[in-house]
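Q: Here's a chain of 249 amino acids. Please give me its 3D structure as tokens.
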Amino acid sequence: MIKVAVCGANGKMGKEVCLAVSENSDMELCAKIDLFGDDTYKTIEEAKKNCNIDVLIDFTQPKSIYENAKYCLNNGIKIVIGTTGLSDDQIEELKTISNKNSTGCLIAPNFSTGAVLMMMFAAQAAKYFDNAEIIELHHNQKKDAPSGTAIKTALMMSKAKETFKKGNCAETETIKGARGGTSYSDIQIHSVRMPGYTASQEVILGSSGQVLTIRHDSPDRKCYMPGVIMAVKHVAQNNDFVYGLENIL
């Protein structure tokens, strides 16, 4: 039986994760951690003092995830991270700590198998197109931009080419930010924040005479739960560091 704690338990994703863990016969929800709620521990430290935690799942805030992860990895708690907003340097530091302490850590910008496949398809298509941009669309309560999924997608695509702006003319923005943010291999990422969306992403690839669009939509957070459960089981059985759900599919 895997003893699982959920950090950010009373958030929208946290509630779904708690339900998924509770319904899994191989897992026990041993602790709910959140600043709000009468049935929760307020800190990971408090939960650790009162519970034996095998794996902690974190769906909190960009401002807290780095310190949460460091605490877990330095105190023998394996961690599955769904919170986005970590920088490349922070991810490398967590990898170092995970490997040093032989404590499993899995970071996934997206736990939806469909979204992961979208990212993999985009990486494959990137070999055959010289121009590409990404549009990601989320609800207006998402605090970080661009999304972790968009960043990870661009990173995967960047392995195909040094630039995806072949043949572009010199550009002038009359409104700052109109062309979005420039990411790996000059891939522009455009972030939309709008009530009504949950999570969607389009990868647009172009060449002379053709455009390929790869799109994924997540209208319901339940689509993430199979991936979360898969990640918990992997981390419980392994002490490695994994960045991206595609690495354990």
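Q: Can you summarize the key feature?
A: The CA atoms of residues 29 and 214 lie 37 Å apart.
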